[in-house]
Structures are given as C-alpha cells and as structure tokens.
Design brief:
Length: 404
C-alpha cells in the first residue's frame, strides 16, 4: 500500500479531526444522556412547512434542479439585504453572497484573506469549525479571553499594542457576539462599539458570525456590530441552519461589495454555486410567512430546556463549579476546579454514569481549558435534563472529594 502522507500538501500536515465529532461516537450508546451534540432539536423541524414547500416547489418551474449563480439566487439575496437593512445595517443585494452553510462562508473568507502565518484574533474559547477553517489556511490564532460580557477588550488592547510593537498586525478577528458557541455568552453593546474602535485603530476586519442571534429567550436584541460599521469593515455571517434546518445548507455573508466579488470568484473554484434546491426551499419558507412563528416556537422550546438545565445545575452541582446563564442559543459553559481534567473524566462519565458532554479543551487555541465543559441543551430531551445533570454532578463530586 502507498504511504499517502508523502503526497500531502504542507498545509494539511497539522489538520486534525475535531474532538467533538469523535466524542459524538461515544454518546450513541444506549442509555447515555448526552449534552454533547450541539445540533438543533430534530423534533422541532417544521415538517408540515417542508411538506407544503415541497408540493409548491415544482409547480411553476424546475430551476431548483439547475445550477444557479455563484453568488446565490438574486431573489434570496434581495430578501436578506432587506432583512439586514431592517435590522439597522443598510446593504444591497450586491453585498450578499449565499454559501453552503455559514461554515463555507468561514472557509471562503479564510481562503481570500489569509496568507500562511497571518495573525487572526479569536475569542477564547471559540467555535471549533472556525478555528479549523483558520488553521486550514495556516492562520496563526491568538486567543482573547472572554467573560460574561464577551471579549475582554482590555486584554485585547494590550495584546494589540504588544503585537504592533513587534510589527505584527492581525488580518481579522472572529467573533460570535450572540449566545456564543461554546459559552452562550453575549457581547455587550459597549464592547461591540469598543471592538469596532480597536479594529479601526489597528486596521483589521471583523467577522461577525451570528447563527444563534434569532434564538433569543426574551431580551431585546443587541444591535449587530455591522449596524455600527460605515466603512465595510465588518463581514456579517447569517445561517438558516438553526432556525430552519441545517440540512438545507443555506448560509450567507454580507460584506464590502469588492470583497463579495472576490469571494464569488473564490467560490467558483470551490463549488460553482450553493445548493439551488436549498436556496429555493429557504425562499419558499420566507415567502410562506410561517418562519417567524416557527422561530418563536423554537425560542420557547430552547428556553424551557435552558431553564431546566440551569435549575438542575443549581440543585446538584457541588461548590467550586460555575456556569454561564445564556440568554439564547444552545449552550451552557461549565468551569470546574482547576485540577479537574474534563477530557480525562469523559470516559468515566460515559461508562460509569452514562452522561456525555464535550470537554472544553478543543475550543481553546493554547491548550488550556482542561477544566471546562460545554453542555448543549438544544438536543436534550426535557425529561432527561435533570437526571443528566445529576449524573454529571456525581462524576464531578467524586473528583472533588478525592482531591480534598
Ligand atoms: C458559531 C457557528 N458558526 C457557524 C456554524 C456553521 O453553521 P452552518 O454551516 O450550518 O450554517 C456553526 C454550527 O454549529 C456555529 O456554531
């Protein structure tokens, strides 16, 4: 058999599969209560709406079966431009490109913006898919810590100053300002403004990734960073994965028109066009007038799951464990005493207590975060949440008692 490694490009030598995907395999055993998978709840997919759409889809034309324009269907781009404009960030269809999920937008942005060795600032912890996309183009990731109000701009300002003194300039920062994956934290309005100021001062771009923004549990939405941007410095990413279905693979990006044109050229070499069928389905969903009500029902459902998890955490977790209180989205982030290694603890949690989670290490770019855990409440059955947290607390309690 050929040794394939010697044929690999230099840039893929360090590519690794995600710990998270590996962890999912373990959680499929019967009897396990899993808080690992951060997918949307399958039972919440709007099946009736999809059946209606499928019936309508081919009544007038078969364009959904054809190739489409690389930048996406014009009608959908116009809808999205109008939506973003209504949210306070005026933009035209020419500044929108539809992608196969926002994951592809991340890949294309890195493809177009990054040379090997370019610096990229990321929240620490951050979404693994984005960290991988940056890594695939050999970007150097610099982690900026976050607290309950999001990015620590004080730390970031010091870091930028230090970097500038060494002649290092980041190309962009990647941020998930609403209900962040993995922590559930939201970036405050004040810090959004401060972040844009720093970006202007040190001349870098901002990637604002917002797949969870519509899944708010009641608070007034904080304005997008994009609404404060009058020079095209912010690249805004949206997605229909969490509010409709990830299977349709429709995400989108709004950016400076020149950048959109360049990304369109890059996309031609990647896949010619996004899934036309997916775009048609999304358009029909938007035109049905039923998407708003569906999103409202998702908010209620996810909020109930969040409440159950927060209540169980308060009831069962031992002293020394802290967690975030997300105002939307899918995730709660746990911080355990520093001596607990959550990656090493996972096999015990699964085999002894039949509960699964994702260790926080993989969300960190500097190997830290050993004592952290991401819990997803999005897919958990309501009846399992309390019992799952009780089980997890037992595993953690045992470790705390041994260390005492
Ligand atoms: C923060 C974040 N960005 C992007 C994505 C990718 O989403 P999609 O490609 O399905 O739009 C995810 C998926 O979980 C995510 O959590």
């Amino acid at each position: 058999m050929l040794q394939m490694e010697r044929f690999y490009a230099q840039r893929v030598k360090d590519m690794r599969g995600s710990d998270i995907r590996d962890a999912f395999k373990l959680t499929e055993e019967p009897g396990i209560i899993s808080f690992a998978g951060g997918f949307p709840a399958q039972e919440a997919f709007p099946i009736d709406l999809f059946q209606e759409i499928f019936q309508r889809l081919f009544q007038e034309d078969y364009a959904g079966l054809q190739y489409g324009p690389t930048e996406g269907l014009e009608a959908l781009r116009r809808e999205l431009a109008a939506q973003l404009t209504a949210e306070g960030a005026p933009c035209s269809a020419e500044s929108i490109i539809i992608t196969n999920g926002s994951q592809q937008a991340l890949d294309l942005i890195c493809k177009v913006l990054l040379d090997p060795g370019d610096y990229v600032l990321v929240e620490q912890p951050s979404y693994v898919g984005a960290l991988n996309a940056i890594g695939n183009y050999q970007g150097k990731k610099i982690g900026i810590p976050i607290d309950e109000c999001g990015l620590r701009l004080d730390v970031m300002a010091n870091r930028l100053k230090e970097m500038a003194s060494r002649g290092q300039h980041p190309k962009f920062i990647y941020t998930i300002p609403n209900f962040q994956n993995p922590t559930g934290v939201t970036l405050s309005l004040e810090r959004r403004r401060g972040l844009l100021e720093l970006a202007k001062q040190y001349d870098f771009l901002i990637i604002e990734d917002n797949p969870y923004g519509e899944l708010s549990f009641g608070q007034e939405p904080v304005p997008h960073i994009k609404t404060m941007d009058n020079e095209g410095r912010v690249i805004y990413l949206g997605s229909f994965s969490k509010i409709l279905s990830p299977g349709v693979r429709v995400g989108w990006l709004a950016a400076h028109e020149a950048l959109v044109r360049k990304i369109t050229v890059a996309k031609q070499g990647t896949d010619l066009c996004s899934t036309t069928l997916g775009m048609k389905i999304v358009l029909e969903a938007l035109h049905s007038g039923k998407l708003r009500a569906h999103i409202e029902s998702l908010r209620i459902m996810y909020r109930r799951r969040r409440d159950l998890m927060l209540r169980a955490l308060s009831a069962y977790m031992p002293e020394g464990v802290t967690w975030t209180r997300p105002e939307g989205g899918f995730f709660i982030w746990l911080t355990l005493p520093s001596y607990i290694d959550t990656k090493a603890m996972l096999p015990f949690a699964i085999t002894e207590q039949k509960v699964a989670y994702v260790s926080g290490t993989g969300f960190h770019v500097d190997g830290t975060g050993q004592n952290t855990i991401r819990l997803a409440f999005s897919q958990a059955a309501e009846g399992d949440i309390e019992e799952g947290i009780r089980r997890l607390s037992r595993v953690i309690r045992e470790r705390i008692e041994v260390a005492m």
